[in-house]
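Journal club prep — side note

Before the paper discussion, L.F. wants everyone to see what a predicted structure for a comparable chain looks like in token form. Sequence:
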Amino acid sequence: MNPGTPSPYVSVCPVGCGDALVPTELELPEGRLQRCPGCGQLVSRVSEARYRETMASFDRADFNQPAGRELARRHAVARRRLAAIAALLARPPRAIRVLDVGCSRGQFVEAAAQRGFRAEGVEPAPRMAAAARAAGLMVHPGLLEDQHFSEGAFDALTLFEVVEHLKDPLPLLAECRRVVRPGGVIVISTGNTASWTVTAMGARWDYFHIAHDGGHISFFNPRSLRRLAETSGLRVERIETARVKFHEKGEVAAWRYTAGKLAAECLNWPARLCGKGHDMLTYLRRT
């Protein structure tokens, strides 16, 4: 490290392997991504100051207000995930109390409530929590650990695009395990670094770039996510992956981007079958 260079915010494997991190060939503005030899977890070299600067974007007044096709897409995704939760629990929605951790404005909470679930959320960004509550949603401001829910209070917990922001996800997973009932389900979504997208794009994948995706410092693969779950006392029910891409929009000519998008769509189904999509959804259960 050069004199005067800020220390990286994350310097050990977030999964808790205890192995020294080694540099990869994936070069970002903050420096090369680091890899844990034990589980393959990738870690950013971003400084704490830069991390906190980008995390502030999640509490802007104009943040996370989807409309049109994007809003319809999110509702469709929510319906699929809620149906999967109900199937795993073998209960009707009205008998399922679900908590969305890091719920932002509460779109998933709203979708769950509309489908009969007893839905709540928890959100650390004050403006987002206030906006959700103003919309009539049951959203608790602050961190999950601040809420002091009773043990086994929920049938299901969801953490959508949360764990990649955490320096140390183990305390959060421990609290998730405590507040979900035995046999309950925890659903985690995050990016997959063992994907064909990363093979094709490497450091060009925008998911790695904290300037594009604020707060992204920790990057999982199926092996590291399984280890995180097992360390937290949770059983992996299944891991699903989806989507492939070869270019970010605007980085190549329009014809080349379109050709790459068509090729990626042809690979979406094989990527699902092989676990090589870059969107990773993991269903865990408290045994």
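L.F.'s comment for the group: The chain has one domain: 66-206+221-286. Keep this in mind when we get to the figures.
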